[in-house]
Design goal:
By secondary structure, this protein is of the alpha+beta class. It has three domains: 258 residues, Deoxyribonuclease I, Chain A; 48 residues; 54 residues. It contains ten helices and 15 strands. The strands form three sheets. It has a six-stranded mixed β-sheet with strand order 3-4-2-1-15-14. A six-stranded mixed β-sheet has the order 5-6-7-8-13-10. Strands 9-12-11 form a three-stranded antiparallel β-sheet, with no helix packed on it. Keywords: Coiled coil, Endonuclease, Exonuclease, Hydrolase, Magnesium, Manganese, Metal-binding, Nuclease.
Length: 443
């Protein structure tokens, strides 16, 4: 068999010769364009919004509680959280290093703990940063350990005048006298480090409330403790974003699990997010998130900051939900619809134009996808949404006695969390079997 004839050189075909990127005689403007394109590909692209969250996970420093880190990261992804401040981590150095190694490709992580001779920690605060949302490098992120095990700050790229956003995460002591001194100590650390940036956000478990209505039964904190926090907030021009957004609402982020004693029935809003007053107008979606699967007696608090200078971008065109591509009923109906359209297009006696057949096909595909998608919404997810509405209604009902209201809202909250955990377990089970239900391939 004769070998195929080689194609003629480009010059003989009347085309300009291709210039290699390594050719020293390559046009200067081509090299400059290539360098600009490479720089754009390598440069981190920060999104126009960033969601910041905070949660106390009640200890995640042992083999028995190690799963909480996976739960926290799944919660970040489900809620689109770019930065999550975690309190009461109980991490030692070895376990913190193991977590960093495990999630290194998807997360930046920094842990601050008070270590004892046994190399364990009873406190601990950590910050997780989702690399897919905060598209930065290690060089772009700077950490500041304010108070070991109690306060940690991170600076990340953002669209401010300085090009940075500074987030201070705290886990304050729960003893009132120590709590008051803690805020004074934080202020002193910043006084001793005048070159440090001032926090734009302050978030975490404050273990105190500023107002009596943020605790049930209502009671005020020590005046000295409240004054110490107020001084710190005034110094950094920080405001309670959720309270400013909801001036007349009563919600709680922690509830006691005690069945007897003085803690029975206690609830409070000790988990909060403060924002610099100059940035408050740029924030939205101040939420206390009940529907999250983490095993903790604290709720997730979160807010989103936007770059309001960017142009408005809508939701975009509608598309078929990706989960329908594995849905048997949808695939069967698509096969039937497409087969009918194919037969109609081949029928010479059919007066309908090919364009009309195609238009009819697309409409039927869209309508079928929307109908099946609505039917395929998991019953558990619909149940969660219904329970959330019932919970909101119960919390706002002032006609119900306090004890009865507490029992009802606790019951609804527990049902929501149980369903969320079931959904999380199902997602993990589906993922472990592979995308189509088969065992995952070995690598």
């Amino acid at each position: 068999m004769n070998a195929a004839a080689a194609p003629p050189p480009l010059a003989q075909a009347g085309l300009a010769p291709e210039v290699s990127e390594h050719d020293e005689e390559a046009p200067v403007h081509d090299n400059e364009a290539r360098e600009r394109a490479n720089a754009m590909r390598k440069a981190p692209r920060t999104k126009a919004k960033l969601t910041i969250g905070s949660v106390n996970i009640n200890g995640a420093g042992s083999d028995e509680t190690h799963y909480k880190w996976s739960d926290a990261i799944n919660t970040m992804r489900a809620n689109g959280i770019g930065v999550l401040v975690v309190q009461e981590t109980h991490l030692d150095r070895a376990r913190a290093s193991r977590i960093q190694t495990t999630y290194d490709k998807t997360m930046f992580m920094k842990s601050s703990s008070e270590l004892f001779d046994t190399n364990t920690s009873s406190k601990g605060v950590a910050i997780l940063i989702d690399r897919r949302i905060v598209k930065s490098t290690n060089l772009d992120i700077k950490w500041y350990e304010v108070i070991a095990g109690r306060a940690l700050m991170v600076s990340i790229p953002w669209r401010t005048d300085t090009g940075k956003l500074h987030i201070l995460g705290v886990y304050a002591p729960n003893i009132p006298e120590q709590n008051g001194r803690f805020w004074d100590d934080v202020a002193k650390v910043f006084d001793d480090n005048p070159d440090w940036p001032r926090p734009d956000f302050l978030t975490g478990d404050f273990n105190m409330v500023e107002e009596a209505r943020d605790r049930e039964p209502p009671s005020a904190c020590r005046a000295a403790t409240t004054a110490a926090l107020a001084n710190l907030l005034d110094r950094f021009s920080l405001v309670d974003g959720w309270r400013k957004e909801n001036p007349n609402l009563t919600r709680f982020t922690w509830r006691s699990r005690a069945t007897t004693g003085p803690q029975l029935g206690c609830r409070s809003r000790i988990d909060r997010i403060y924002v610099n007053s100059s940035l408050w107008d740029d924030t939205r979606e101040w939420n206390i998130t009940i529907d999250q699967p983490m095993y903790t007696d604290h709720e997730l608090v979160q807010t989103t900051i936007y770059d309001l200078s960017t142009p408005f971008i809508g939701k975009g065109r509608w598309e078929v939900p990706s989960f329908l591509l594995k849905h048997d009923k949808f695939l069967e109906q698509m096969d039937s619809i497409c087969s009918a359209a194919d037969l109609a297009s081949r029928d010479a006696a059919n007066p309908t134009s090919p364009q009309m057949i195609l238009e009819d096909l697309k409409v039927k595909m869209r309508d079928t996808a929307r109908t099946i998608a609505r039917e395929a919404v998991p019953k558990a997810r619909k149940k969660i949404e219904d329970l959330k509405k019932d919970l909101e209604k119960a919390l706002d009902d002032q006609t119900v006695p306090a004890e009865e209201q507490r029992e009802l809202t606790d019951k609804l909250s527990d049902e929501i969390k149980d369903l969320e955990r079931q959904l999380l377990d199902k997602r993990r089970s589906d993922k472990s079997r592979g995308c189509c239900g088969a065992p995952p391939a070995c690598f």
